[in-house]
Amino acid sequence: MRRIPIEYAREGDILGQTLYNSYGGMLLRKETLLTDSIISKLKRQGYYSLYIKDKYTDKEIEEIIKPQMRLRIHQLHEEMQGIIREFNDGKKVNINSVNKNIMDLNEIVEEIVNETILNKDVLLNLENISIYDDYTLTHSINMMLLSIVIACDSGFNMYQIKKLAIGCIFHDIGKTFIPIEIINKPGSLTNEEFEFMKLHSEKGYEFLSNYTDLHAVSRNIALSHHERDDGLGYPRGLKKDEIHIFSRIAAICDVFDALTSDRPYRRALSVQESMEYILACGGGQFSIEIIRTFSNSINIYAKDTLVMLNDGREGLVYETNVGFNTRPKIKIYGENGRKVNPYVVDLMENNNLIIERTIHKFSFDIDHSYEDIRF
Ligand SMILES: [Fe+2]
User: Fold this and answer.
1) Helices 67-88 and 135-153 sit at what angle, rounded to 10 degrees?
2) Cα 255 to ligand 1 centre (Å)
3) What spacing in Å lies between the alpha carbon of 141 and ligand 1's midpoint?
4) Is the predicted pLDDT of residue 334 greater than 90, yes or no?
5) Domain membership of residue 124 as a residue range
6) pTM tops 0.70
7) What is the helix (H) or strand (E) element at residue 114, kind and residue range?
8) Is residue 24 part of a domain?
């Protein structure tokens, strides 16, 4: 199973992952046989990419967030947004109902933290985002999952990680205060619009400060996730250690997930390209130490990714070398565009070989199923 750009999807392909709408309801069940009309409909709904089952691999994608959890998080997030809208309209907010939501979310987050820590290897199965989905929430969930892994690998305990995770869910709740035309504008914002958009961090923080059941550390993520180590972030222009460590972790995961997500105005970057971007920000916008943990924790060449090597060989990632994410073992299926009998090369033992890029299909035809081509 692999994620492919939607224009590579063909009639007869089998959907590898259930697609949900923004309310957690099922849009298309996993294993659905795709037809031209379904593919066109998905394109119209704004999907740029999909997971399909293919002949290269039988890898299943596990879901960290179960459908019931997803539905409950969507409901809670929507309730919070509804409360903010009422608050904006001058209505009195029922503080007890908000605190009840936060307590509910605490329970769900505890489950998610446990699941994520147990299933770190499947983490890159982040949510697919349709432009008609609630981007803010889906993105917040992805950012939360990434942040949990980084915090876990940085040595924080469960109690601390839960505070980080809840902060991630609400990090952009302040966008509910910003006019929807600015939030959904397909293209770059004017300076004036951007200044308005920047208010979301303070607005979100102020709103969340009404609720004592939400820990100060969690609220701080709403306030500080756009601060940058070099002092060029907002709203306060804080630097390095002036920014809480959880906001610094959240900031990196925020940018990484935004880059890897399809947006109405641009296609997602690959995981590798996004990682390159993050690495390039080390020592400037972001902390080198956190980025080091991030790049060691996030496996950018997941097992079964199709790749092209710098000498023209094509293959799939066969096994990761622990601690050396960019140097996995590759099972080669083709050389210079021609199919060969599969064999494995270990990039750790071949210093002159590098992965040039990931590919969506081999340049030659494989006319049998993966069972035939596996050893
Ligand atoms: Fe934000």
Assistant:
1) 120
2) 10
3) 13
4) yes
5) 67-297
6) yes
7) helix 95-118
8) yes
